[in-house]
Amino acid sequence: IRKVLLDCDPGIDDALAIALAIGDPAIDLRAITTVGGNVGLQLTTENALRLREYFNADVPISAGSAAPLIRNVEDASHVHGVGGLGGAVLPASTLPVDPRHAAQLIIDTLRNAPGEVHVVAIGPLTNIALAIRLEPRVVEWAASFVMMGGSFTRGNATPAAEFNVFADPEAARIVFGAGWQVTMIGLDVTHQARANSDVIARLAAMGDLGTELVVPALTFYEDAASADGQGPAVHDLCAVAYISHPEFFTAVPAAVDVETSGRLSYGMTVVDFDPPLPNANVPTGIDKPAFWDYVVASYATHFTA
Ligand code: BDR
Ligand code: CA
Question: Which of 37, 86, 102, 206 could potentially form a cystine with 33 if both were Cys, beta carbons 3.0 to 4.6 Å apart?
């Protein structure tokens, strides 16, 4: 069983990734940290709290940074809805947020179990960068670091930049330069994981989880990939899937850096596939049938339990 800390900005696909991390019996979700991203920090935090109670999960949740390190706030409420969960409406939360800053919860969680906790970041990388600056040993303590973000072909926030990196390029640059290996689950691979009509039909059949959360969230969700009618890309689920099923992915070593001064390329991940010194592992392909079977099986634990 793999211990996981999830840093997120729910967010439709973040919500579905939280559902996956809680449902997957091979994952022990130890902490959730929130960051401003798809919507503002207050909403991403409230959404995480609501999801925790919806799934009856016992996991600390800390709020982190409301704003990027340097640039101005850039949200994606046009993609995720003003509340962040598309058409899904969950009951308001009643249980409290952990009073620690997210960066502190990251540090504490890793310090308490060095070498054991996998860090999965599926929002802008502000909290992760702050944790690294506050306590550089987090890089040694993490069992692995997997992020959803970036790409080696195209962007979605701009032609060059993917949203999570574009939302805080300076933070992403710190994270890639921290001396650990970053598994970069970029748009090149997440655009292959699409919730098409067959997938939606399978998820719709999953009791309350389907009718209350997955379907109202996903049917609202339009991203750059959905224009061709093949359904939206469930980006953040791929990062969680990578933790328990890396064998679903083909990946190559690379050196990744982030452009922080380009006019058209601000927030672009520049990927060298022939590097003298790789700092990243970049998935390029995904076994789609195995991935969706895994998602459906993990979600099934929520309504059979
Ligand atoms: C990423 O940006 C966000 O809108 C999604 O939640 C995902 O993390 C995709 O570019
Ligand atoms: Ca996200």
Answer: 102
